[in-house]
Amino acid sequence: MTGRRNLLAGEKSPYLLQHADNPVNWHPWGDDAFRKAREEDKPLFVSIGYATCHWCHVMERESFSDGEVANLLNDACVPVKVDREERPDIDGNFMAVCQMMNGSGGWPLNVFLTPEGLPFFAATYLPKRGTAGRPGMVDMVPRVKWLWKTRREQVMQSAGSIRETLLKEALPAAGPLPGQAQAKAAFDELSRGYDPQWGGFSKEPKFPMPSWLLFLFHYWKRFGEGSAFSMAKNTLSRIWAGGIHDHLGGGIARYATDRRWVLPHFEKMLYDQALLLHTVSEFHREKPDPLFEAFAEDLAGFVLREMTSPEGGFYSAFDADSEGEEGKYYLWTEEQIRNTLSREEAGVFLHSYGVLRGGNFKNEVTGRILGDNVLYMAVPPAEAAARFSLEPEELGGLLASCREKLLAERRKRPAPLLDDKILTDWNGLMIAGLSLAGSVFGRKDWVTAAEKAARFIELKLREKTGRLLHRYRDRDAAIPGFLDDYAFLAWGLTELGAVTGKKEYVLSAAKLMDILLEEFADGKRGGFFPHGGQDANLFLRRKEAYDGAIPSGNAVAMANFIRLAGPAGRKDFPDHARRIGGAFSGHVSKYPLSHAHLLTAVLMF
């Protein structure tokens, strides 16, 4: 620690504030940082992450709190910190650079830029000192300084080449509206990747990928393909049983590091809860099942208890770490459980939830198992009931009582950080999920919560012009809205209008779509840009329809136009939807599964 705070001290982002005491002379992204880089003839070092990211915490402790690294960075560069959740436009541009240069991406994301904002190097987590195959900060920063001083022309050529390549990729080939052939190709790709034993569509790691599950739902509905339903349901049942599901407090972690969904990366994101809630509600509406109902109760209950502000907006995320360790809040030793439960309860619970004396949780870095356990449903309830000579109802009641006792004990521990910023786009997803779930499961209180959140955004994050702001925290609303803010909130308001029958929600959603058409549309080629283009420091205005952990804003906009056309009385909306689909036709044909949500919208036509 330096005893003085850097320029991040005046920011609202919890992630930026986590770095405000670093000896690194961090700047927030903005004109001042770029002006300083030009005046001092230095490259910028832009480091991007988010408040609940485990490896961001590791790099902060190892490097950004370290005097040696700080001195190197301060000498060679103008260091800039970015919260990817506040500025998805910056993150999207530089993640594309990282994926192009390295074949993969992730966070923290670290990029070196010229003073004109052109990237020439990108990497994810960097340790302080290099290891085999991975450079370290103390190696990398002097190397960049040397290149900048002695090989400037080479660096500038590399930066220009990167920009040109990304510019070409950012212009998707237009064509006719994708159709059944592309949907079939995406379905076939999911079928080939499907894990019939443990669900999901990869070996490891495994992400919930609600966009894929929703695509399978609509594919099943449209074509009657039974395997689409069974793949999705088995995946949902495995997620429900796995350690990725918090069996005590509710909610789903961001992803599992193993094939069986047992070992999670522990951060909990609002968008995962929202999208999975929407998914299980869609399935239950068509084919009621106790699994879907239990899942919905779990997800909605967790968000309304733990992630809802007094004013009604929804918070962003819970951290993976507590007390400086990943997952410490959620892990249990056998002894801790035996000390909390009666002898009879402990025997049943330990067997049912896969608790081992030596532990079942493997440290991701060291590979060692040190006695800690992730709770997961290790055996089917019927098998556990038979083993302990209990009726299924008796087993269910006993395990519920155990979970309550363990949750009460867990609440005595230091809790993970709650990232309490409120994002318009993620709130839109939660409004959509709660609205649909409230209708499907007959929960008026969920619909009421969705309406309260919609009122919060109307009051705090919507300007008098109707335009949106992206982030609210500590009584401060800021950052002009992005494509996802408009598209996702319009989705939520559309669902809310359908459930409540209130026309004002539908008209408000249509107004948001009109603003998108006015300010975000690519008038020449169709589709929407992710932002309004106000930031002159961004080297690229990308346009894409790929899904990530959340669906593409262009795909959601397309679905909105289709669903709103009738209720809003807008005959022009279907044409706008077709134009979006046609704008990305070439990319959809080339990478159908990456555009699952857009293909879901196609299936809605």
Automatic annotation (TrEMBL):
Listed InterPro entries: 6-hairpin_glycosidase_sf, Ssp411, Ssp411-like_TRX, Thioredoxin-like_sf
Entry-linked CDD domains: SSP411 (cd02955)
Residue span(s) of domain Spermatogenesis-associated protein 20-like TRX: 6-166
Any Pfam family matching the protein: Thioredox_DsbH
Biological process (GO), any one: carbohydrate metabolic process
Full protein name: Spermatogenesis-associated protein 20-like TRX domain-containing protein
